[in-house]
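Reading is simple: each integer encodes one residue's backbone shape. An example follows:

___
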Amino acid sequence: MNKHNLCRLGNSDLTVSRVGFGCWPISGVSSLDVNDPASVATLERALRAGINFFDTAYSYGYEGEADKLLAQVLAKYKGEAVIASKVGTYFDEQRNRVVDGHPDTLLQHAQEILHRLRIPCLDLLYLHQPDPMVPIEQSASAIAEAIQRGWARYAGVSNVNLEQLKAFHNVCPVVAVQPPFNMFQQQSVNPIREFCRAENIGIVCYWVLMKGLLAGAITREHQFDPRDRRLTYSIFQGQARENGHLLLELLGQLATEKNCSTSQLVVAWTLHQPQISVALCGAKRPEQIADSALGMGVELSSDEILRIDRWISDLDFSSVQVT
């Protein structure tokens, strides 16, 4: 593995690839065309492409499907992967998503994750999302207890604002925070960036390719299946979607100049952003994750970054909501 494609994650001894594999697409919850053989092949291809960091969660699947698929690969490639998971959300019997930050629930779900993955300890355990009915300090105490019990080595927190991050960190020091971040949606990272720098907290961002849009996988003419949850995202609606395609045309021109794919260019831009440690990329097929992984090797000059930033600013995605 190229050492330039690795980083130390925050204030930890975890050495992770700068592109991580986000396991949400293989969970089968929102993707319509996943199957187990393809998912396992995609996970294995990620490892061969130089990705050693895998991000899953208790709620990645109605019955832990992503964990169970990942377990098959971990059994074959022992000791080669750094595993992060998240607790604090789950699907009920009616398949409604529930946010639950009660300590007992968090500890129970952490145990279940280990059972599904067939491993004794996670490298990193996040609180998936703050529960508005539970003080975040109580949830943080549960994550700290999981570490004390030997179920995880390090703590993280996801989907928090600066105030919540500080409150959690005061109770349970974190080595990583996981917000959504992409060319369309930068507002979740900007307020926490300086605190993360000062406290040596790694930023592990998701939605880097925005559900395939920034990979160039969705054309203007693409008609979504009515069951496709991407229809609910503001970036896939109206003028925001049109502006997204205009940005993609510009990115495509630059990618051609640099002899790389659009998704590789997007990944590279992401990794050049201040304090961003890891870009999580989801995939359902081996060639998708292999393409994203190559983004770790794309160098961008300061002028190229400024060009991209100017395009983003001119097209104005400030109305795109983080959902």
About this structure: The mean pLDDT is 95. Residues 29 and 61 are 6 Å apart (CA to CA). The chain is about 40% helix and 15% strand. The chain has one domain: 3-215+262-298.
